[in-house]
Design a protein that fits this description.
This protein has about 325 residues and is of the alpha/beta class. The chain is about 40% helix and about 20% strand. The chain has ten helices and twelve strands. Strand 2, helix 2 and strand 3 form a beta-alpha-beta unit. Helix 7 packs parallel to helix 8. The chain is flat, with a radius of gyration of 21 Å.
């Protein structure tokens, strides 16, 4: 038996930072021609990376792989200062597509370090955004990913502690860690505005609302997408089955047994056409009732990187 209804979470999919980053690579290809090199994945979505590769983007792990004087786009996740230095040394035409909300966290890290604080960064070890942020003040930053790790922190002056966070974390889990830090370090300071980005918060809030009305949630996103994985976690914590899928080919028919209503959402790096493919899959098995489950209307937009705007002016 096919499900009776499909509910589409809104907001879902591309955030302003991802839209800006993908648009940056596409416009760079239009202006400079192929190849345009991209350091790391421009965003964490395999479909997007493959599509840009077919257009002439060349994805590299390190800026030293880019030929001298080549065009290189830095990913939305941000990079450490030494990356910019190596780009200059190789005379690369560098276009920085770092999400402005990630840049905000970098700025906080530099400010706290300059003021003599030990900085506790809440994030996932090895994530590109975390690597870039830690590069701003490596001697001052301590990385933790859970409450349990607070006891292992080595901080010389407990009265001079600050915290910052990765932008794509679980909102609820992060608040628990921040509360525990405040209990351990009563004088700890933090950013005036939450580091977790608006899109991450909105998508988690939307899937929480969606979970109340469905029997199953499918999250469209790649395995290395932090915010997509958090959408799965948030849903499961509410007792609703949830699975991360790259596209409709990953749907297991066994998941749909005894399911009347399926909820669909997508991570901030998943394009809307993947949602359309999943909807088409369900229409193909007989689902006729497809509705939007709206929470908030997002209207955030970021301008293209300065270097690209100057080049194409």
């Amino acid at each position: 038996m096919a499900p009776q209804k499909l509910l589409l979470a809104s907001p879902r999919g591309y955030c302003a930072g991802v839209d800006r980053a993908v648009d940056t690579v596409e416009r760079a290809l239009d202006h400079f021609g192929a190849p345009v090199y991209v350091r790391k994945e421009i965003v964490h979505n395999g479909h997007v990376v493959r599509d840009l590769s077919e257009r002439g983007a060349v994805f590299v792990d390190d800026e030293t792989e880019v030929p001298e004087h080549g065009v290189v786009v830095l990913s939305a996740h941000g990079v450490a200062p030494e990356v910019y230095q190596r780009c200059r040394e190789r005379s690369l035409r560098t276009i920085d597509a770092t999400c402005p909300l990630v840049t905000k966290v970098h700025t906080e890290a530099k400010r706290y370090a300059a003021d003599g604080y030990t900085i506790v960064l809440i994030g996932h070890e090895g994530h590109e955004e975390v690597v870039g942020t830690m590069g701003e003040a490596p001697e001052s930053i301590r990385l933790i990913g859970s409450v349990e790790e607070i006891d292992r922190l080595e901080i010389d002056d407990p009265s001079r502690v600050a915290y910052i966070t990765q932008t794509t974390l679980s909102v609820d889990e992060t608040l628990v860690i921040i509360d525990a830090l405040r209990e351990r370090y009563p004088q700890i300071v933090g950013p005036k505005r939450d580091d977790i980005c608006y899109a991450t918060q909105n998508r988690q809030n939307a899937v929480k609302q969606l979970a109340q009305d469905v029997d199953l949630v499918l999250v469209i996103g790649s395995r290395n997408s932090s915010n997509s994985n958090r959408l799965v976690d948030v849903t499961r914590e509410l007792g609703v089955p949830a699975y991360l899928i790259d596209d409709e080919t990953a749907i297991d028919a066994a998941w749909l047994e005894n399911v009347e209503t399926v909820g669909i959402t997508s991570g901030a790096s998943a394009p809307e056409w993947l949602v359309e493919r999943v909807v088409s899959y369900f229409r193909g098995i007989g689902v006729e009732d497809v509705q939007s489950h709206d929470l908030v209307d997002e209207n955030v937009h970021f301008t293209l990187p300065t270097a690209l705007r100057r080049a194409t002016a």
